[in-house]
């Protein structure tokens, strides 16, 4: 019996050590992949002698960031502000409309075709109209970010609300629950994993909307900076703007993922337990 207990303890310690190594690898893996990508990029550019105006090496992009750090910082803050403003509007409007569509078959039948048609319109074609209505400024990027990130939130929230089992609804009604109680106490918690999945998509595409508007109506922001740099064939500065945009998108994605883990950890607790066990 003692020998079996010792073997079980050794097996448990081995599994725990393997789980710790896996967590450390998962923590550092994104940085290893990013670093490896930039190292490979540098090697390819130097080895093949690719001209800077075609594909700049990472060290050229870093030098451009150092040289133009002030306009990069100013334009990045403008783009970040427009993205967050449009994204916040999309969250409020998307959740409200998603709840309405997911909880009512009549609203779904009436509005869903219109939403699909509107989402099919290229947002770059809407930007000139927004400029006519609101002028050149922050409103076209904000509204474009809103329009491009609104649809994923609506669809996912509506899906989460609509997937509440009919049998569960019948039981709740038999217990005296009102439709509002079913939505608030069952539907919304059920929709949370869908909601956060949509946030991680919408927060990245919101940058796309903001930069599209800034490129069409150049007043400020990363889109304007990229257009100005392109007109001067300053390709390292173009890549610097793209990399900074990608970095901001990653940060916002991580924030959404952190909030998701803190609020909807119950949705993935089985997966987390399997990983902790080294499975």
Features:
disordered C terminus, 85% helix, mainly alpha, flat, 2 domains, 279 residues, MetI-like fold
Structure, described:
With 279 residues, the chain is mainly α. It has 2 domains: 1-50; 58-269, MetI-like (MetI-like fold, Orthogonal Bundle), CATH 1.10.3720.10. Helices cover 85% and strands 0% of the residues. The protein has 11 helices and no strands. α5 crosses α6 (139-162). The longest helix has 47 residues, at 2-48.
CATH topology of the largest domain: MetI-like fold
Counting helices, strands and paired strands, the structural category is mainly alpha
Number of helical stretches of at least 4 residues: 11
Rounded mean pLDDT score: 84
Helical fraction = over 70%
Briefly, what CATH class of the largest domain? Mainly Alpha
- Overall shape: it is flat
Classify the beta-strand content into a percent band: under 5%
Uncertain spans, ≥5 residues at pLDDT below 50? 270-279
Question: What characterizes the major β-sheet?
Answer: none
Distance between the termini: 27 Å
Topology:
Layout: H1 2-48, H2 58-67, H3 69-103, H4 105-120, H5 123-134, H6 139-162, H7 166-174, H8 179-216, H9 222-231, H10 235-263, H11 269-276
Helix pairs in contact: 2-10, 3-4, 3-6, 3-8, 3-9, 5-6, 5-8, 6-8, 8-9, 8-10, 9-10
Short description:
The chain has 279 residues and is mainly alpha-helical.
């Amino acid at each position: 019996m003692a020998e079996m207990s010792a073997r079980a303890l050794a097996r448990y310690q081995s599994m725990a050590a393997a789980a710790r190594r896996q967590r450390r690898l998962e923590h550092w893996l994104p940085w290893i992949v990013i670093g490896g990508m930039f190292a490979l990029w540098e090697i390819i550019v130097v080895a093949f002698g690719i001209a800077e105006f075609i594909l700049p090496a990472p060290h050229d992009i870093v030098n451009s960031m150092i040289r133009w750090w002030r306009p990069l910082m100013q334009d990045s803050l403008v783009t970040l502000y427009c993205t967050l403003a449009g994204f916040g509007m999309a969250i409020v409007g998307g959740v409200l409309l998603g709840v309405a569509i997911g909880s009512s078959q009549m609203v779904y039948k009436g509005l869903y075709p219109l939403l699909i048609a509107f989402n099919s319109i290229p947002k770059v074609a809407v930007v000139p109209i927004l400029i006519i209505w609101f002028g050149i400024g922050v409103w076209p990027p904000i509204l474009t970010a809103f329009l491009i990130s609104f649809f994923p939130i609506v669809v996912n929230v509506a899906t989460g609300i609509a997937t509440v089992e009919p049998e569960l609804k019948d039981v709740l009604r038999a217990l005296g629950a009102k439709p509002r109680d079913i939505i608030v106490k069952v539907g919304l918690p059920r929709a949370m994993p869908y909601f956060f999945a949509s946030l991680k998509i919408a927060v990245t595409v919101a940058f796309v909307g903001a930069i599209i508007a800034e490129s069409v109506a150049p007043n400020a922001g990363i889109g304007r900076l990229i257009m100005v740099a392109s007109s001067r064939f300053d390709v390292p500065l173009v890549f610097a703007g793209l990399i900074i945009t990608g970095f901001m998108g990653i940060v916002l994605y991580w924030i959404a993922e952190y909030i998701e883990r803190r609020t909807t950890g119950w949705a993935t607790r089985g997966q987390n337990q399997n990983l902790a066990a080294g499975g």
